[in-house]
Amino acid sequence: MKTVKVGVLGIGNVATGTYKTLQLNREKIQKSTGVDIVISKILNRRPDVDRGIDVDPGVYVQDVNLILDDPEIDIVVELIGGIEPATEYMAKALANGKHVVTANKAALAVNGKMLQNLAMENKVMLRFEASVGGGIPVINAITTALRSNDFDEILGIVNGTTNYILTQMTDNGSDYDSVLKDAQEKGFAERDPSGDVEGHDVANKLSVLMSLVFGADIPPSDIPTQGITSVSKVDINYATQFGCKIKLIAAARKVGDTVECEVQPTLIPLTHPIASVNNEFNAIFITGNAVDDVMFYGKGAGPLPTGSAVMGDIIDIACAIDKGSAFDMQPVLRYDSELTFAGEGVNQYYVRLSVEDKPGILGKISSTFGNFGISIESMMQPKHSEIVPLLFIIHETKRSVLDDALADLVANNYVKSVDSVMKVVK
Amino acid sequence: MKTVKVGVLGIGNVATGTYKTLQLNREKIQKSTGVDIVISKILNRRPDVDRGIDVDPGVYVQDVNLILDDPEIDIVVELIGGIEPATEYMAKALANGKHVVTANKAALAVNGKMLQNLAMENKVMLRFEASVGGGIPVINAITTALRSNDFDEILGIVNGTTNYILTQMTDNGSDYDSVLKDAQEKGFAERDPSGDVEGHDVANKLSVLMSLVFGADIPPSDIPTQGITSVSKVDINYATQFGCKIKLIAAARKVGDTVECEVQPTLIPLTHPIASVNNEFNAIFITGNAVDDVMFYGKGAGPLPTGSAVMGDIIDIACAIDKGSAFDMQPVLRYDSELTFAGEGVNQYYVRLSVEDKPGILGKISSTFGNFGISIESMMQPKHSEIVPLLFIIHETKRSVLDDALADLVANNYVKSVDSVMKVVK
User: Fold this and answer.
1) Parent domain of B93
2) Which residues of B touch A326 (CB under 8 A)?
3) A61-111: per-residue pLDDT in tens?
4) Selected catalytic residue, list B41, B105, B205, B245
5) Can you tell me the mean pLDDT for A275-303?
6) Least confident window among A45-54, A199-208, A218-227
């Protein structure tokens, strides 16, 4: 049986999950592929720490070059995360003629094009199923079974931490702060949660998805991004009254020759399949011109689910090496479309205002909206007191136009404060 | 650019959908693959009928051998359906060294092993993404990205006709007969709907899925199968009161060294992701020992969604032909496990009985259940009249044990009639 040697960079959750997945199912993988995959070296700068896996201590190395320069290693698996030094290590591995598997959305979102070119120059594969949606095989589906489609739209819940927090706030009526603390204690959120809760992780993943789905090269820094830190229990309750849940959604769609996209808390109707995706689960909903709507659902994080995706890439490459066809495998990323970036799109919005409860105020607000070309789909005035909340779902408009209208309402003192603005998907 | 020629057998919905998908996206496919795929011949025994596609009449042939024996054709796409002559045609194509793509679950469920062996002997591919779940790329996911997993369980809604009927009965309170008639008028159900409504189509698909997921060789005739013809509005209403929907579910699970499976109407709790799969949509929910729960959702039928899946297989093979590696592609079906078939499993059940409303009857029924080792999870007695319905959700038991207990209840005249027995998934 052919042996394929793998070097792993990093020994965090995903690396231990990858190791465990191989350990669990090695015999089954050998039987179904005819290849023996061996993790021969792991970069582990703190070999004294117990990682909960049963590894021969001789496998651990502290010098990354012992992996990158090892002529016996065919596949380098980068699981350090972060842009650097991960990019540097992957680039060196590719330049050394090694196939690279990574789960690193941050490095891919910024340096994917460079790394992909380097892989093609050196006739090796760069694979990254685990970078979006953890164990969900969405990248594989888009780039293989669904590739007869021209895609129109992506709608994704691709961050387990924020989906866990929003689910707990929705189901248990808890506060953002207390749920975040609970999530940190359970290991669902990091001690510094900003990368998750401010939406940057989602923007990285959306950037990768847009290159796969549309062939568009849109860096995460260009994507209008808003996290969940300002989502309140109040809005979650009102969303329920509009028949919706609030989810942190990565959205992108093709409009003519442009791509519109945004990452933001979004009202999703309960009837939409993505609305029932709860807690640490992720889902990616895609629309193609032949397949129509498809959705992929599963665990977006966690050692074993993510390890499953990393191992899937390793097995694909190992089988291709075994058959001598690894240098012919299709590159995965494409940046080949002529679509231009159009920023945030035209959307429906939920707006929560505080107004003084006096006659005529609704007329003034409606007229102002009308002056800006904004039309109201529905309105709710939940209770009567001196200062009352006033809720609107408005029809498709540009966010910038809506913001101008809202500024005008405040300037004219028709509105005491604009408490919340969120996108609505129908 | 390399040209790969395709011969299509049949000119029904899936064939026209495949043709349209290629026509729609040919340029995009050429650009992303570097291969030009041409449908050079279509077997069409009634070329006078308008199929709504723009085909050069010279493409149509009436003799199947003009395709099977054409040395220029690399890929034969079998879209006739049914076991014969489809199997005979596929076997001849494989023997002639042609790759075969099919959407034919009936032929695969019965003859998959023979066809797969023939493909391997002749060093060609047999591919069938469209045979289960229409456009949903579930077969590809199981056999590639998820293949590092050992799988525990399958739960699927894999027939659009029956799911459409059950959804309409649930949402609109309609009768089975009137919804079936409506579905036939809309083209969602065939004039002879028995293959769908009696569950045979689902059993064929479950047989294919079990070979992919477990490596188990279980023909559809061995699968305990019950269709939806006996599902009533009454049971749908009571299911709602237990927090469940009734869906026609293909289920299989590994228990020790055995596989249990069954196809039957099943109560699914509203909180389960598969419960919100409505109308013509399909979903396949799979549990692996690394990835945990994953679900694939999309249109299980229709010309373009199914055409998307057929084209995905064609593109994969065409790219491999282009690179000279098509003979090395992994076979898809496996029948390599040592799992034995255990028939229908131990499940929870919903039971609806009619009883006379007299004191002590519930005690007698409970005691009888107890004598058979059956324990009750919940009981509901919805209304009072002379003959009343009595509803139970019972804990895990063998269906045969439950049937014995129910027969005993009737024999002892504790129960007037057993009106409904359905599996419950928690």
Assistant:
1) 2-134+302-328
2) none
3) 999 999 999 999 999 999 999 999 999 999 999 999 999 999 999 999 999
4) B205
5) 96
6) A45-54
Between A357 and A220, name the one with better pLDDT: A220
One domain for residues A148 and A284? yes
User: Which pair of tokens denotes residue A225?
Assistant: 């991004």
Q: Tell me: do B271 and B407 sit in the same domain.
A: no
* Structure tokens that stand for A127 in this block: 């694979």
- Whether residue A58 is contained in a domain is answered as yes
A17 and A166 housed in the same domain:
no
Q: What tens digit of pLDDT does each residue of B166-190 get?
A: 999 999 999 999 999 998 888 778 8
Q: Are residues B321 and B397 in the same domain?
A: no
A297 or B332, higher pLDDT: A297
**Tokens 């842009």 found at:** A83
Residue B29, min C-alpha distance to chain A (Å)? 6
CB distance B290–A140 less than 8 Å?
no
**In a shared domain, residues A291 and A307:** no
B328–A323: do the CB atoms touch at under 8 Å?
yes
Q: What is the DSSP string of B133-189?
A: TTT--HHHHHHTTTTTPPEEEEEEE--HHHHHHHHHHHHH---HHHHHHHHHHHTSS
Q: Is residue B335 part of a domain?
A: no
A337 against B117, higher pLDDT: B117
- Whether the pLDDT of residue B111 is over 70: the answer is yes
| The two three-digit tokens of residue A75, written as one number | 């596949």
For residues A59 and B280, give the distance between their C-alpha atoms in angstroms, rounded to a whole number.
Answer: 52
The CATH number assigned to the domain holding B55 equals 3.40.50.720
- Of the candidates B259, B57, B278, B242, the one whose C-alpha atom is nearest the C-alpha of residue B162 is B278
Is residue B49 domain-shared with residue B176, that is, in the same domain?
no
On whether both A295 and A306 belong to a single domain, the answer is no
CATH of the domain at A196: 3.30.360.10
Contact flag B330-A145 (C-beta cutoff 8 Å): no
Summarize pLDDT for B14-64 with one digit per residue, the tens: 999 999 999 999 999 999 899 999 999 999 999 889 999 999 989 999 999
In a domain, B340, yes or no: no
Instruction: Name the minimum distance, in Å, from the CA of A353 to any CA of chain B.
Output: 33
Mark yes or no for CB contact B146/A312 under 8 Å: yes
A263 lies in the same domain as A183: yes
pLDDT grade, residue B148 (50/70/90)? very high
**What is the pLDDT at residue A330?**
74
**In terms of pTM, does the model score above 0.80?**
yes
Residue A389, preceding peptide bond in cis (omega within 30° of 0): no
B371: domain CATH number is 3.30.70.260
